[in-house]
Amino acid sequence: MAEMERRNRGILSIEKALEEFDKIILIDSRLHDRQLTEAFYDEDNFRETDKRVLILSESEEKRVGNIEWHYISESETREILEIYYLYEFSNRIAVVARERTFGSLWDYVAAGLLTRKELVAAMLA
Amino acid sequence: MDKPHYEEMLSNLDRLLQNGRIQNKKIYLFGHCNATEELAKLLMEKGFSVEAILDNNEAKQGRRFCGIMVQAPETILAEAAEDTAVCIVARAYAEMADQLKRLGYQGAVYKLADYNTYAEYCLSKETIARKKIRVEQGIHLLHEMERKYPKCFRILCPFAALGDVYYAMSYLPSFLEKRKIYSCGFDGCVIGVIGKACAGVADIFGDYQIEVLSQEEMDYMVQAVLYTKDTGSFIAHQDRPYVINLHKALYTKCIPLEQIYCCGVYGLPKGARASMPIRLQPYADLEQIKEGKAVIFSPYAKSVTELPDALWDEMVEVYLNRGYQCFTNVAGTEKPLIHTMPISPAISEIQSVAERAGTFIGIRSGICDVLKEAKCRKVALYPDYNYCDTKWKAIDMYALEGWENMVYRIGELQRRCIAVKDGLIWKRS
Question: Which range marks the domain in which residue B57 is found?
């Protein structure tokens, strides 16, 4: 039972989060790109949203208004990402990651079409 | 709306009617799009009235389609749930059903067509197990494709739209160069597309292998690419499947479609080189077209609101009165405009047809992208609609350089862009 709980912890946590928050942003811990991830720790980038937003990462937890940053372990992240790439289980979760199999908003930032603040706003849309 | 989805919608509607699900209910549709308009028309033909079309896009709210008001989704909560039924034929069924549930709507919600096999808003073990089987099928298809095209990098175009395939192909060489694909053990490239028309577009760009897939096969393969992080494949689209978030930038910024493909899909710098088609052919019966004294009309587009017949009829009349030959570009069961001749060139031949005629006038569709560089007068007509649920108009996203881009609003034809050359202009009396 304990093993099952550990194995499903990621799914359980995302299910709970989907009930409580309007939007969930999951930052892939394997993403070593501070320029990208920094934007999601900057509270100023979230000032214009009235959504309840949860940012999941391995960084420290904090809460500012309707935005919360929660810690998530590497194994939970892997579990959620496995399901995320298996099918679309919600349109309210966004993943911050660099994948080589498709284009993404990060490419707009690199091309100078979006600022990092606009990137965050787009992810929250 | 394509034929298979139309038939699926028809079949599902008939089943609802046989089971008495929507009789004596106030019927709401969710998501104002071409498919929803088809469903509304179908319901009215069957003697039902539609209470409203729900849509999140504020720019659409307050407008009417065939007398049916477009309203915010929350408005349905004013009704007793048991007296209502919501029918959804739009692509984002799962998202819409989820939104209704979160609003507190407790009435029936019916999916009339399955456009989106990726989505199921449920995390049950059964759903996960079913989706794993789907991915396994996709992996099998990928392996088959690998066996058929060994050492070929796979480009998957997951949506059957000519314009999307055009831009995916146009920037592909720059992308392959950027990724140094041919130095990574690949000898070539195979393009996966849906349907023969998209294959025709891919083919005009050069010596690529092309594999025509069904929508289902494509969906399974794309999911397998995502799940396995297949480094031998790339998904070349701007908003499919769900993991691709490029369209979200459009909520704040207008990025034209070509730039979406260049910078967003392929990660190329602004101004990266776009390739042109190189395998164009002359149409076999060019001599039937009066050189410089003919017009090719193209009134049909798969997923765009139609322009009124009266508009096309008026244009045809003007040109006929001036001694022009008038042709309608048709495919499949499409009918030519009244007093015009049908013409059905292959994708590779259509540029020769337009250039021979001297004038092309079409609803803005993928055919216009294929004719992008044609040397003739080129007019693109835009119905007055917003791009998806953004604040941008279609003309903002799709305007073509070197074309006369015009927005049609009910009661007028409004010129939006480049001045019309000397020649024929039609006027409303």
Answer: 3-111
